[in-house]
Specification:
The chain is about 45% helix and about 15% strand. It is α/β, with parallel strands linked by helices. The chain has a seven-stranded parallel β-sheet with strand order 3-2-1-4-5-6-7, sandwiched between helices. Helix 1 (about 15-25) runs parallel beside helix 2, helix 3 runs parallel beside helix 5 (about 115-130) and helix 5 packs parallel to helix 7. The structure holds nicotinamide-adenine-dinucleotide (NAD).
């Protein structure tokens, strides 16, 4: 019997991160549930859902803008469960800003979370994966596939994640650590339900009608793909990115 696996997940008090903690719990993977105190999400709800399926997890505050905070977060896995197998860099922010209003501060604030925050998470995970492991970073169709008006900083960060993940995969392969990215399409979460910085409920409903699968995605539908990429079933997959979008990006528009 393999010892149960242990994962760190940033941004796991809501959305895709929460769904992943719950998915992992059902598969016997123990999680360190990263929660960002600056947001109103309730990490105890993630914990409740994990326990409801008979899983184990602990909640740990983490701000991916701080190397010390992320290092302490990753160390919690070792302190709590004695090992670290999976690192999932899921935390992200989305802000609306035209190019004309794109101050240097807006740009660097975005990249600090959505790109450097990913680096900090993967780096902190890598040094603690003593028996090999797997990493997944969450990109976006905005940046990875499409441009998005008013979101150049977000798209740049999410495109950057793909270059980062490829290089990490090459560097860590010899240590038995795989690194991949998921590229979600439109997924109903607090981020996309924000009508100021994203589509909001009405925009999501409209967009859903135009997706080949007929609707926007659920957090669980992304979480299960992340879990697959970290699992041994994807044991020969590294440096790749997988689009999870219900066919949105392959639909030809006349
Ligand atoms: P979400 O807002 O529910 O999740 C983002 C999480 O990141 C939140 O829990 C938030 O508290 C956390 N976070 C924000 N700033 C942080 C910081 N400084 N340190 C640590 N945590 C921080 O939305 P989501 O859609 O579940 O987002 C998860 C990931 O998926 C993000 O990277 C997002 O960009 C990406 N994504 C989402 C969609 C979508 O349609 N929802 C599409 C493509 C990509």
């Amino acid at each position: 019997m393999l010892e149960p696996r242990v994962a760190i997940i940033t941004g796991a008090a809501s959305g895709i991160g929460r769904a992943l903690a719950v998915h992992y719990a059902g598969a016997g993977v123990r999680s360190i549930v990263g929660t960002f105190p600056g947001d109103p999400h309730d990490p105890q709800e993630t914990l409740r859902l994990v326990h409801a399926v008979g899983g184990q997890a602990v909640v740990h505050e983490v701000d991916v803008r701080s190397t010390a905070s992320v290092d302490a977060f990753a160390q919690r896995a070792v302190d709590e469960y004695g090992r670290l197998d999976y690192a999932v860099a899921n935390a992200g922010i989305l802000r609306n800003s035209s190019l004309a209003e794109m101050t240097d501060t807006r740009w660097t604030d975005m990249l600090d979370v959505d790109l450097t925050g990913v680096l900090r998470t993967l780096r902190a995970g890598a040094v603690r994966m003593t028996e090999g492991g797997a990493m997944v970073a969450v990109s976006s169709i905005a940046g990875a596939v499409y441009g998005w008006e008013g979101h150049a900083h977000y798209a740049a960060a999410k495109a950057g994640v793909l270059g980062l993940i490829r290089s990490v995969a090459v560097e860590l392969g010899p240590r038995g650590i795989r690194a991949n990215a998921v590229i979600p399409g439109l997924i109903e979460t607090p981020q996309s339900l924000d009508p100021v910085n994203s589509l909001g409920p009405d925009g999501l409903a409209r967009a859903g009608n135009d997706i080949p699968w007929g609707r926007v995605g659920t957090p669980a539908e992304v979480a299960s793909v992340i879990a697959f990429l970290t699992s041994s079933q994807a044991g020969y997959v590294t440096g790749q990115s997988l689009i999870v979008d219900g066919g949105l990006t392959v639909k030809m528009r006349a």
